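Please fill in the sequence for the structure shown.

STRUCTURE ENCODING:
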């Protein structure tokens, strides 16, 4: 029986880094169609924020930065056997506040305060349309470990959208590389919509699926210096982390209380 699976990724690389082995294994089953929708993959035009300019230099992106990263993403998902779809919403480094100031300041590690209600509504609508189109049995997204604003926006929008589709199973993945930096034991923060995460569990990844994940990670050339500069052997780092998590990638099932479903 054919089963559609939808993974919702904040950025171009997050789903692969965090759940690429599991997604590759799911896609290897010819009964499954696995779609990965990246929310913050929208094209951006100059002028760029100071943060964006510094990151472009770090990533060695000399042309259209988002187009280059989208091309990397398509190559990565070809390795996994998954279907890549790109959202129209710009990354936080390209967004502005209502007063026109940049959302993220001069330090790319800064996390902006406040909500973006219009953005939330638009992302919820886009995800809701995908759920209605694909009718997935399972939706996966990030747990937002590390608190990056785009991860939080993505997770909360997915929770909102899925709360309107009873019967759809929702799982959160452990955000990597944030989980590497935090070590084992990280937990999702309090979730909106009275959503409750279950106990964490590891999905064992076969050697074949693991190799597909590593090949996919290699496609994100622009990200390697930023992600792995202190220890470029990401295979060993991810392998050690999987072993510490019980031999695989880490997830949480999410349940909604009846009061939280609108």
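FILLED IN BY: designer on duty
SEQUENCE:
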């Amino acid at each position: 029986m054919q089963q559609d699976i939808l993974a919702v990724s904040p950025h171009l690389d997050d789903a692969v880094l965090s759940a690429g082995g599991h997604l590759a294994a799911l896609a290897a089953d010819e009964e499954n169609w696995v779609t990965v929708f990246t929310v913050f993959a929208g094209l951006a035009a100059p002028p760029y924020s100071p943060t964006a300019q510094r990151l472009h230099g770090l990533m060695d992106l000399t042309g259209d930065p988002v187009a280059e990263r989208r091309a990397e993403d398509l190559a990565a998902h070809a390795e996994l056997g998954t279907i890549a779809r790109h959202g129209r919403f710009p990354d936080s480094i390209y967004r502005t506040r209502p007063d026109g100031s940049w959302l993220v300041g001069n330090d790319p590690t800064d996390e902006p305060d406040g909500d973006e209600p219009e953005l939330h509504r638009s992302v919820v609508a886009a995800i809701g349309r995908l759920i209605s189109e694909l009718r997935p049995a399972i939706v996966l997204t990030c747990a937002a470990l590390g608190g990056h604003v785009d991860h939080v926006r993505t997770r909360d929008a997915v929770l909102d959208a899925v709360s309107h589709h009873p019967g759809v199973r929702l799982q959160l993945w452990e955000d990597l590389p944030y989980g590497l930096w935090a070590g084992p034991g990280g937990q999702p923060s309090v979730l909106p919509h009275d959503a409750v995460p279950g106990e964490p569990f590891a999905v064992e990844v076969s050697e074949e699926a693991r190799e597909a994940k590593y090949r996919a990670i290699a496609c994100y050339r622009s990200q390697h210096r930023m992600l792995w500069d202190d220890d470029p052997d990401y295979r060993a780092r991810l392998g050690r982390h999987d072993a510490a998590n019980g031999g695989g990638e880490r997830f949480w099932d999410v349940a909604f209380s009846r009061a939280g479903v609108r």
